[in-house]
Design a protein that fits this description.
Shape: elongated
Order of helices and strands: EEEHEEHEHHHEHEEEHHHHEEEHEHEEH
Distance between the termini: 43 Å
CATH superfamily of the largest domain: P-loop containing nucleotide triphosphate hydrolases
Strand content: 15-25%
Helix content: 40-55%
Low-confidence stretches: 230-248, 279-285, 331-335
Number of helices: 13
Number of domains: 2
Largest sheet: 6 strands, mixed
CATH class of the largest domain: Alpha Beta
CATH architecture of the largest domain: 3-Layer(aba) Sandwich
Oligomer: single chain
Mean pLDDT: 80
Number of strands: 16
Structural class: alpha+beta
């Protein structure tokens, strides 16, 4: 463990003294190696920020061992703490910019603490980093002239400009939109990969979990593995999505959401579902399987509405049985149907075989159209839009369909683009459901 840039062993921490003494961290043991990105999740008040400030040498460790860049921080002197701090880049929830300085000057000031450089070199480096975070046109603006997200990006540029040996980030994307947040974490990932910088990142943002090499969970001061984190988060996810609701209840709930609200919910559920199904400990969870089932039903119904279709369906490709399984569809009254057919039949089967999306203007004129589904559901299909869903290996594991554009016109290229926008995240949830269905069958 001693060779890692961050090595923690049996670390505990307390606030207050005497009867008011309260333990915040309990027996934390972990390490972060060079180039590794570790994300810490957990509820507010669980000790995440305290852990970050200890690793960042912003306070001296009290109990156990905390070695950062080869220096022991337990009972460390002010000089040792200062020496370590100079080698660390910090990104905190509060941007902590100096209002009297411009964005460029804020970044330059941070650079002056780390190396003796000429004025021209400092300016060049500061401008380059601000451009990298999308603020090239605002470098001479003061913090009061910037939005909250822009101020956070200045803080991120300030942290990265000095080429730190360790990067610590506390909710770095909290005030950023999806695109800006992605740009920020991509920049952090490049720093970690190309320069071997270890990153310890605290976040509640499920959109950025994919950059992590490892995720740990901190709750009530106790650090646990990701599988334990999944277990701890299960109740929260059930409350978010299922709450023991019937499918019709779930459908009515998402039907009331705006496009933006639905997109945000879909993104959140997709990120959480992806993490859940990666955990072997939940492979046999009937509750989680039921929750995914409810979510698939409701989300597919909502996507049909958003894409101006009378119906939306999802087929699973069961290659072991050489069948297509119509997993999500609705009869009149919203009841689900369950239809299986040979994988070589129907337009869905054709897309499953070729992996190419298709738009069919007149279903009954297409020789491959499977009329059995209409006979089973009582629905009359006119036009069809079908797209493949790919698994992690690039194979088609499912097919999504829209039936009958609500205005009577055939589906067009814009419909296909919008359909993919919503159905690709659904694919993550559907793949998770399919894994669990196969595991517990």
């Amino acid at each position: 463990m001693n060779g890692a840039p961050i090595a923690i062993a049996h670390l505990s921490h307390y606030y207050g003294t005497g009867e008011l003494r309260k333990q915040i961290l309990f027996d934390i043991t972990t390490e972060i190696v060079a180039g590794e990105i570790v994300i810490v999740t957990g509820p507010s008040g669980s000790g995440k920020t305290t852990l970050l400030t200890l690793v960042g040498a912003l306070r001296s460790a009290q109990e156990g061992s905390l070695r950062v860049l080869g220096q022991e921080l337990r009972d460390a002197s002010a000089a040792v703490l200062e020496s370590v701090r100079k080698q660390i880049g910090y990104i905190f929830q509060s941007h902590n910019l100096i209002d009297a300085l411009t964005a460029r000057q804020n970044v330059e000031m941070a650079l002056q603490l780390h190396a003796h450089r000429g004025t021209a070199e400092l300016r060049k480096c500061a401008v380059k980093m601000l451009e990298a975070v999308g603020l090239g046109e605002l470098i001479e603006h003061h913090p009061s002239q910037l939005s909250g997200g822009q101020r956070q990006r200045v803080a991120i540029a300030r942290a990265l400009a000095s080429q730190p040996r360790i990067l610590l980030a506390d909710e770095p994307t909290a005030s950023l939109d999806k695109q800006s947040g992605r740009e920020v974490v991509d920049r952090i990932q490049v720093l970690a990969r190309e320069q071997g910088v270890p990153v310890l990142l605290v976040t509640h943002d499920n959109r950025i979990l994919d950059v992590a090499d490892r995720i740990v969970h901190l709750e009530d001061g106790h650090l646990s593995s990701f599988q334990d984190a999944v277990r701890a988060s299960n109740q929260q996810m059930m409350q978010l999505l299922a709450q023991n609701l019937r499918k019709d209840d779930m459908r009515r709930r998402v039907e009331a959401l705006s496009d933006t609200e639905f997109g945000d919910l879909l993104e959140d559920v997709t990120g959480q579902a992806k993490r859940f199904v990666e955990s072997v400990s939940f492979a046999g969870s009937e509750a989680f399987r039921s929750m995914l089932d409810h979510a698939l039903f409701a989300f597919t119904y909502k996507i049909g509405l958003l894409c101006r279709a009378e119906r939306a369906s999802l087929y699973l490709v069961d290659r072991a049985r050489r069948e297509l399984w119509l997993r999500v569809a609705q009869e009149e009254g919203g009841r689900p149907v369950d239809v299986r057919m040979p994988i070589g039949t129907g337009i869905a089967g054709r897309v499953a075989r070729t992996g190419v999306a298709e738009r069919v203007a007149d279903a009954y004129a297409d020789p491959d159209f499977n009329r059995e589904v209409d006979r089973t559901t009582g629905f009359v299909t006119r036009s069809i839009l079908t797209v493949p869903l790919l698994d992690a290996a690039g194979g088609v594991f499912a097919v999504a369909q829209l039936l009958n554009r609500s205005d009577g016109q055939p589906f067009d290229a814009d419909d296909e683009k919008r359909f993919r926008q919503f159905v690709d995240p659904i694919g993550v949830i559907l793949e998770g459901w399919w894994r669990l269905a196969q595991t517990t069958a």
